[in-house]
């Protein structure tokens, strides 16, 4: 089973879009990444952590997002596309 990851950017307050082309505040336009690629992206951003005082990019499993949102009523702008996996 190949796990799909999304990448949350603390620096840009949004989800990475596909191929790293910008950021999205909602899940609908969030890019889907294989684990190795998501971890590589987040590791390459570690030098920014010292400047920011926090991790700038964080990998998040799409299955965890879907499980957390299951049976929950969430504002549309936040929930958009979460079940589109």
Query: How would you state the average pLDDT, rounded?
Result: 86
Shape: globular
What is the count of DSSP helices, taking H or I runs of 4+ residues?
Answer: 4
* Low-pLDDT regions: none
Radius of gyration: 13 Å
Please describe the biggest sheet, giving its number of strands, its sense, and whether it closes into a barrel: 5 strands, antiparallel
The end-to-end distance, rounded to whole angstroms, is 14 Å
Oligomer: single chain
Helix content: 25-40%
Quantity of strands, as a count: 5
What structural class is derived from the secondary structure elements?
Answer: alpha+beta
- The succession of helices and strands, N to C, reads EEEEHHEHH
Strand proportion, as a percent range, falls in 15-25%
List the helices and strands and how they pair.
Layout: E1 4-9, E2 14-16, E3 23-24, E4 33-34, H1 35-44, H2 47-52, E5 57-61, H3 62-69, H4 76-79
Antiparallel strand pairs: 1-2, 1-4, 1-5, 2-3
């Amino acid at each position: 089973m190949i796990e799909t990851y999304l990448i949350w950017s603390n620096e840009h307050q949004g989800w990475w879009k596909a191929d790293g082309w910008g950021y999205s505040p909602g899940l609908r336009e969030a890019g889907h990444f294989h684990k190795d690629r998501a971890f590589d992206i987040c590791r390459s951003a570690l030098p920014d952590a010292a400047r920011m005082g926090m991790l700038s990019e964080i990998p998040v499993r799409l299955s965890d997002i879907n499980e957390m949102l299951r049976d929950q009523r969430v504002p549309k702008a936040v929930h958009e596309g979460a079940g589109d996996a």
